[in-house]
Amino acid sequence: MLYLHPIGGAGAGVAMTDAVDFLVDRSDLRRTAFRPGRHGPDSALESGQVLVRIDRFAFTANNVTYGAVADLIGYWNFFPAEEGWGRIPVWGFGDVVRSRHDAVPAGERLYGYFPMSTHVVLQADCVSATGLVDASAHRAALPPFYNQYSRVAADPGYDTAREGEIALFPPLFATSFLVDDFLADRGFFDARAAVLSSASSKTALGSPSSCRRRGASSAESPGSPHPPTPPSWRAPATTTRCSATTRSPRFLARRRRSLWTSPGTGAS
Q1: What pTM, to 2 d.p., does this model score?
Q2: 205-261 confidence digits (pLDDT tens)
């Protein structure tokens, strides 16, 4: 896996100071191109929109998978490109450089799902002290998890010195949390052991780490009954663009305890 500070050299015919998109041929992911960006420093903003300059992001095998299954699952739809080309999404950081939303000032640093581009325009909605949602029309039918952006200044798990690790691990720690939470809510199905395949994957690393911490903190073995989740901490039964598991107090508390000490987070 790679952690990248990507915006530097572009490609032939594209100046380093210009707005740039990195595109891949949807029929052949090995064919790529740098093109003038769809959004840039002078992009016009409508009411509620913010212009974000993308600063850094992680690029892993998971992102290649986004491209490989993009037509099946819809990953090309997050950040449209010209006909025949696509922009593969990545997880990373960006700074708001201009804003037409009163609650999201210029200078705000965000973490979330971005294109491999210098800039992107987000339609800020569901703005809270901890984050916002991109409510752009073309993203309305897409999974809400990917449309959420964290305001890092209010994120208790954020550490400037750990931006590399944060870019790499939290999205898959969310799936680790959900695996552990699913098993715990069902008493681990009375099992005494669980076997995870794909042992090098971030989800496979994070899930047993969460399970072990649960056992240590509650003095229960994996096969023991587990108390039900307090109702006030459950994720909403119906997830909307303004609600998600990653905003739950239980998820945030678990991430704070686990993110920097999970086995394997030092290298991969």
Answers
A1: 0.74
A2: 788 878 877 764 332 333 334 433 333 323 334 455 676 544 554 555 555 444 444
- 264 is a domain residue: no
In a domain, 128, yes or no: yes
Last residue of a domain, one of 162, 196, 215: 162
In angstroms, the Cα distances linking 109 to 23, 54, 112, 185 are: 25, 10, 10, 35
Q: 228: domain range?
A: 169-258
DSSP state of 45: -
d(CA 64, CA 200): 16
pLDDT per residue as tens digits for the range 96-148: 999 999 999 999 999 999 999 999 999 999 999 999 999 999 999 998 989 99
Mark out the alpha helices in the chain (DSSP H runs).
Answer: 61-68, 70-73, 163-168, 170-185, 202-218, 249-258
**Which structure tokens are listed for 24?**
């891949």
